[in-house]
Prior knowledge:
This protein is of the alpha+beta class and 198 residues long. The protein has helices at residues 3-33, 190-195; strands at 61-65, 75-79, 90-92, 97-104, 111-119, 123-132, 143-144, 149-152, 164-169, 187-188. The chain is built from 2 helices and 10 strands.
Amino acid sequence: MTKQLSTNLFILFALVVIVSGFMVQSNHSMATFHPRPSMDIDPLWADHFDFPVGKPDGDGYYNAQKFGENNHLGDDWNGLGGGNTDLGDTIYSMANGYLISAKDNGHGWGIVIMIQHYMKGYNKVNSLYAHCTEMFVSQPNQLIRRGDPIGTIGTAGGIYPAHLHFEMRHGLELPLGGGYSADTSGYLDPTAFINSHR
Ligand SMILES: [Zn+2]
């Protein structure tokens, strides 16, 4: 092998190493840039959050048990008329997002709808809507826009006066839980969050 040939081979080898390094690098940056694992495009960002009843401002409803009251992990939205006057009222998605799940979780919870919202900077938050009578969404990962009807207010099978138990979480892997706890890690105060993200 001449010196010239071995130099050329060395340059070729170096080029292959550099190019393959770039390919790995670009695959890596694509994977981190696009937060939706199954999609090749940016998600529908959630850049504006509304109240989940009486859209967009909660008109006609009051928060009967605020986050933190009695160790409550969410807000309880009730119609101003009290009792079951809000039974069957529409619940709206608080922001753009993707459905995690919508299903009947049985005693104490009833139908629970959970949506994941992607915020720029790649923070994600989940919203949870519980005790529903009906659900209008069911397909995991289905795209839901802010203000879309997702279900109706219920009684969790008759065990409560009708209301919407509404939680927000930044702990994305938290189990369904019990709705009450002194430990609020992973949970957000929904009303405070909405008011600072209008
Ligand atoms: Zn509640």
